[in-house]
């Protein structure tokens, strides 16, 4: 149920931004940002949960990773690119609303494949377990955004590929886990 209040709060914030812009003439833009990831993402998010586990498995500090639905598809982009988009929104003469996304969809399974292969583990399936308790009851099968408006009006597009994002996150967690382990 945690996702429901989170989603409702986001919709509320979006419409309040529009309300203040239209009612009070404020220069207030709203961005609908699809999943934006980085090494700073919290460990409770699947991308970071995977990058930490992959690093630990590669270093011999962990054996397995337990996940929910690895067939879920998401539009993941680099948070740094999304910050650039937000900055560009605020530079516009007229405030507006924009969708910020990569326009690509990738399965959790694909994230796993890139992450494990990056550390030299091709048979990752033996390390990954799916647990039904981690499946979301109201799972959205496919999330993908259309940032055409942002591309045209803001002259913005993502610069870091999905492959590059996964590797960046794994590399960061490899360094963190090596430091923790004194390696």
Automatic annotation (TrEMBL):
Signal peptide: none annotated. Keywords: Lyase. SUPFAM superfamilies: NAD(P)-binding Rossmann-fold domains (SSF51735). Its EC number is 4.2.1.47. Residues 5-169 form the NAD(P)-binding domain. Its cofactor is NADP(+). It is an enzyme of class 4 (lyase). Belongs to the NAD(P)-dependent epimerase/dehydratase family. GDP-mannose 4,6-dehydratase subfamily. This is GDP-mannose 4,6-dehydratase. It comes from Frondihabitans sucicola. The lineage of its organism: Bacteria, Bacillati, Actinomycetota, Actinomycetes, Micrococcales.
